[in-house]
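=== RUN LOG ===
request id: a7f3
mode: sequence -> structure
chains: 1
length: 160
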Amino acid sequence: MRNTLDDSNGRTFVPSEAEGAQFARIKEQFEQQSANGATMRIVAGDGEELELPGSLFEVVRHIAMTLSEGRGISVMPHDTQLTTQEAADFLGISRPTLVKHLSEGEIPFSAVGRHRRVLLTDLLRYQEDARVKRRALLRRTAREGQQDGLFDVTYEPESE
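=== RESULT ===
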C-alpha cells in the first residue's frame, strides 16, 4: 500500500500503482468465487488453513474490489467517534449543515469540552433514515405526477 493512515478512529488504505495488476487478478478471482458461491480460506504462518465465515468473505471481497479500482478504503469500528468535520465529510455535506442537523436533534452527539463528537453508528442510522425518506418522497411525487397526468405531457418543438 502506498499510503496507510492510522488514527484513533481506524485505518485508511490507498493502493499504490504498482499493486494495480495484483489487485486486478484478485478482483477476477473474487468475481469467479462469488459467482460459484465459494468460500475463502487463508493459510496461517504455521500452515494451518482457516475458513472465513461468509460475512468476513464479503468484507474482504468488498475491500479487494474497491482497492482494485484504485480507490482507497477506511476501516473503522462502529463505535468510532468523529469530529464534526469528519462526520460532515462522511455524509458529503458541509460542516455548518451538519452542525444544523446536530442542533436540531436530528443526529445525536456528545460534547467533549466545547467540541462535539458524533458516533459513526448514529451517522449510519441518520444516513439510512434520510435515504428511506428520500425514496418515500420520490415515490409520492411520482404517484402524484401520474395522477395529475404530468407524464402524459410531451413536448414537440414547433416546426418552421
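=== NOTES ===
The mean pLDDT is 84.
The CA atoms of residues 154 and 160 lie 19 Å apart.
=== END ===
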